[in-house]
Design brief:
Layout lengths: L3 E2 L2 H23 L4 E7 L3 H17 L2 E7 L5 H13 L5 E4 L9 H7 L11 H9 L7 H12 L8 E5 L6 H10 L3 E5 L6 H5 L4 E4 L17 E4 L3 E2 L5 E2 L4 H4 L5 E2 L6 H20 L2
Parallel strand pairs: 1-11, 2-3, 2-4, 5-6, 5-7, 7-8, 8-11
Antiparallel strand pairs: 9-10
The chain binds nicotinamide-adenine-dinucleotide (NAD).
The site of nicotinamide-adenine-dinucleotide has 24 residues, from α10.
């Protein structure tokens, strides 16, 4: 069966081009560039790569970025004090705390400290709550990227059966809320779900964020399903695999994202978009 490859890299580029246009307009109107502050604690190599790509993307769209890097031994207070200072700093429009944080630091306390108006990751409890009610000004980047990809690929969301695999606060739950807002009938599956395949066989839309390499195979999917693979799983040979076994899934799916080159680039593009939204709101 012919499937549609959902090219996240190309779609993310379109989003970044539009953000670049807005950032330029913002600069013309205000004389300043939108600015993202990134906080990185510890020496997690993956986090260092993510932060570098986020900073590179800022440069690409014509935004400023600044990073605040701390050793793993940093105290929670030191990070929170830095966030408070950034909240007050008018030259900073967006604040991102790269997760995971060192184990002795409470992510909850740190994420709560970020001003809700500069919370470009959309993780602050106020923004998470607003997402559930009527939609938040700043919504989590990866879930927003998933919805953007589905719409761009032409998925008919209203009335569709959507299965989200994973219930984390940063991907599973918010993407489920967004699909509900699009009038999907949403089922959230997780590590305690029995017979995942039974749910998937009836799913027109699948968003997988479970972090299990190639766990979803073609035989589990409904013919023609739109499959969004959020998973990033590092394999022993150094390559990256998604949650979905692409080779077997593409024989059944109607549309599917690759890994890499699917959701990953969209996450960064949506972060740029959120920083733009935050800057525009702060300048009225
Ligand atoms: P997480 O570990 O917090 O959550 C994983 C979820 O999967 C849990 O809710 C768990 O219940 C569920 N799960 C685990 N095993 C399962 C199973 N066998 N069957 C059904 N459900 C199962 O992870 P997360 O932070 O939500 O991230 C999920 C994946 O997405 C990871 O691979 C992560 O690297 C990736 N990710 C990618 C991006 C991106 O930009 N592409 C962004 C964030 C996360």
């Amino acid at each position: 069966m012919a499937y549609q490859l959902i090219d996240g890299k190309a779609i993310a580029r379109e989003v970044r081009i539009e953000v670049k246009r807005r950032a330029n307009e913002f600069f013309i109107n205000t004389g300043v560039k939108p600015k993202l502050a990134v906080i990185l604690a510890g020496d997690n190599p993956a986090s260092q790569v993510y932060v570098a790509s986020k900073k590179k993307a800022c440069g690409w769209v014509g935004m400023e970025s600044a990073s605040y890097e701390f050793p793993s031994s940093v105290s929670e207070k030191e990070i929170i004090d830095t966030i408070y200072a950034l909240n007050e700093d008018k030259s900073v429009n967006g604040i991102l705390v790269q997760l995971p944080l060192p184990k002795h630091i409470s992510e909850e306390n740190v994420l709560r400290a970020v001003s809700k108006d500069k919370d470009v990751d959309g993780f602050h409890p106020m923004n998470a709550g607003e997402l559930m009610r009527k939609g938040a000004n700043l919504e989590p980047c990866t879930p927003a990227g998933c919805i953007y990809l589905l719409k761009k690929a032409g998925a008919l969301l209203s009335g569709a059966n959507a299965v989200v695999i994973g219930r984390s606060n940063i991907v599973g739950k918010p993407v489920a809320m967004m699909l509900l807002r699009e009038n999907c009938t949403v089922t959230i599956c997780h590590s305690k779900t029995k017979n995942l395949k039974d749910y998937l066989q009836n799913a027109d839309i699948v968003v997988s964020a479970m972090g299990r390499a190639r766990a979803i195979t073609g035989d589990m999917l409904k013919k023609g399903a739109y499959v969004i693979d959020v998973g990033i799983n590092r394999m022993e040979d150094g390559t990256i695999a998604g949650d979905v076994d692409f080779e077997s899934a593409k024989e059944v799916a109607g549309a599917i994202t690759p890994v890499p080159g699917g959701v990953g680039p969209m996450t960064i593009a949506m972060l740029m978009n959120n920083t733009m939204i935050a800057a525009e709101k702060q300048y009225g």
